[in-house]
Write a structure and sequence with these properties.
Blueprint (H helix, E strand, L loop, with lengths): L21 H14 L4 H13 L3 H14 L4 H14 L2 H14 L4 H14 L2 H14 L4 H13 L3 H13 L6 H11 L4
Helix pairs in contact: 1-2, 2-3, 2-4, 3-4, 4-5, 4-6, 5-6, 6-7, 6-8, 7-8, 8-9, 9-10
Length: about 190
């Protein structure tokens, strides 16, 4: 692949390789963008790779470029929302997650990203609505149950938090040890 233009490879699909090791494909994403810098999907693919590598400022810039080129690219808004959550721009994360939901009302990751931002801002009612919607759309999503458990914990609704911890575990998820310890201490209940 390195000796010929990426686009000439009949197997090239920038979204198909996103889920693989980003280090392995970093050069391919960069090459594709240099060769065809007007392709929103290529910028989005490189943004995903950069986000996985925790190069968040460049990931946000690539998501922004993808959105500029294709304003209806819901996954780019959602990806940028996750990056903004990670950098602490919670209003921006809510804005981008909300735009994702406008474009795709069944976008599970957008509801999760917005719920995280609302939780971090202390807007627990909005966070619970989004956590509930996430679980309605994806009932076997262990992370959604863990996220809702965190929201309940912060609301001091420890019984509900424990129920979601158990649901998370029942779905094969592993709530973080530090969270389970904090919940145990706060509730007086052993994990």
């Amino acid at each position: 692949l390195r000796d010929r233009p990426l686009r000439s490879n009949p197997n090239y699909n920038p979204t198909a390789i996103v889920g693989t090791d980003p280090e392995e494909h970093w050069e391919q994403f960069t090459t594709a963008i240099r060769m065809e810098p007007r392709t929103a999907e290529d910028f989005q693919a490189r943004a995903v790779s950069r986000a996985k590598r925790r190069v968040l400022d460049l990931a946000a810039a690539d998501y922004s470029k993808a959105i500029e080129l294709k304003p209806d690219l819901a996954d780019a808004y959602c990806g940028r929302a996750s990056v903004l959550n990670a950098t602490g721009d919670l209003p921006g994360a809510i804005r981008d997650a909300s735009q994702t939901i406008v474009l795709n009302p069944n976008h599970v990751e957008a509801y999760m990203a917005r719920a995280v931002a609302y939780t971090r801002l202390g807007n627990f009612a909005a966070a619970l609505r989004d956590n509930d919607q996430t679980i309605q759309l994806s009932p076997t999503n262990a992370l959604a149950h863990q996220n809702r458990a965190v929201t309940y914990y912060l609301m001091k609704n420890f019984d509900a938090a424990w129920k979601d911890v158990e649901r998370c575990r029942g779905l094969g998820g592993t709530p973080t040890d530090s969270f389970v310890r904090a919940l145990s201490e706060a509730s007086g209940r052993n994990p």
